[in-house]
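stage 2 :: seqdesign
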């Protein structure tokens, strides 16, 4: 397997595409979207460019693929950023032109359902960036979290090594975007525990692969964009779960099935994201939320014990559906130093 290559980065003043490759939520919830666009301009010095589907709910897979093609093919666009995730980007993948994207590599930022495109780009040998959506991270009420803002800035503009650190605070409780008062102040945060290490007796360095566990399960079920298990050998796996709050047993079953496929044992290290533990459908209190995270950790450890007992794991890394959020280079280099308890990524 050829190692993925890093595309050129934008510079302040450059134009960047803002796409909705999954859901056109900016069309019905414009406030966080407009806030995110303003911060792209004012705090990052970039000029966002929207496309036909960016604010259009119900766009067809072909229409969303056309936006992706237009953004990547335009030499004046220096990066592509997703507005938000969704739940059906898997239907867009068959309509993507592999040769067009391969010939026009751009940094792509997104996560959740946008893992579909990150996996697709990884298979083309293009490093992507897991994190940094317009509506959620850039459009965060009150202000961007400093930890999120710093990681996103480094990922957008540099190719340098970046050391991840545990967040001192974390939040999962959201307020309704339909209510303008939501944006008057920052979300409530709680003190956060540090990382928890497992089998931390070595140093692992490799290219990353993974993302949202539910989306990866869909890709595996559809056998879409998945290579033979042995081709993932030596890579660093990173996983996280969404606001749908999958039960611990479901997390175990997905990982079990990855194990049965021969996939789980290929990864010598796992970064497990701090699980989001609150949603409008399941508004867990602080105690129940912590129990949810503990049960998920136990489920992951159970699967590792059965299928990848030698894998080193780090739990509660602030990636994915977390606040704050660090960007993970998708297909980029990651160094997990269990002895020194350090994680360094290359943007």
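stage 2 :: out
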């Amino acid at each position: 397997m050829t190692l993925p290559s890093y595309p050129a980065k934008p510079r302040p003043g450059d134009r960047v595409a803002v796409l909705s490759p999954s859901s056109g939520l900016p069309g019905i919830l414009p406030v966080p979207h407009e806030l995110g666009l303003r911060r792209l301009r004012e705090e990052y010095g970039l000029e966002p460019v929207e496309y036909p589907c960016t604010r259009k709910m119900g766009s067809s897979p072909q229409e969303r693929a056309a936006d992706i093609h237009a953004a990547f093919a335009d030499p004046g666009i220096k990066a592509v950023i997703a507005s938000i995730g969704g739940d059906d980007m898997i239907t867009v993948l068959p309509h993507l032109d592999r040769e067009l994207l391969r010939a026009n590599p751009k940094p792509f930022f997104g996560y959740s359902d946008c893992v579909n495109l990150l996996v697709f780009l990884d298979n083309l040998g293009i490093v992507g960036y897991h994190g940094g959506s317009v509506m959620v991270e850039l459009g965060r009420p009150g202000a961007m979290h400093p930890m999120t803002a710093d990681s996103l800035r480094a990922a957008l503009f540099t190719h340098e090594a970046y050391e991840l650190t545990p967040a001192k605070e974390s939040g999962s409780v959201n307020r309704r975007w339909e209510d303008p008062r939501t944006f008057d102040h920052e979300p409530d945060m709680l003190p956060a525990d540090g990382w928890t290490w497992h089998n931390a007796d070595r140093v692992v360095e490799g290219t990353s692969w993974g993302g949202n566990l539910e989306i990866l399960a869909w890709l595996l079920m559809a056998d879409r964009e998945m290579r033979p298990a042995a081709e993932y050998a030596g890579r660093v796996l990173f996983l996280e779960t969404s606001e749908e709050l999958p039960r611990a047993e479901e997390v175990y079953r997905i990982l079990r099935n990855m194990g049965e496929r021969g996939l789980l044992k290929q990864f010598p290290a796992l970064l497990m994201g701090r699980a989001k533990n609150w949603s409008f459908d399941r508004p867990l209190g602080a105690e129940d939320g912590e129990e949810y995270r503990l049960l998920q950790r136990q489920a992951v450890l159970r699967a590792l014990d059965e299928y990848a007992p030698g894998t080193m794991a780090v739990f509660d890394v602030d990636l994915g559906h977390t606040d704050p959020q660090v960007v993970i280079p998708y297909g980029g280099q990651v160094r997990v130093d269990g002895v020194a308890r350090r994680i360094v990524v290359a943007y």
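stage 3 :: structure notes
- The mean pLDDT is 97.
- DSSP finds nine helices and 16 strands in the chain.
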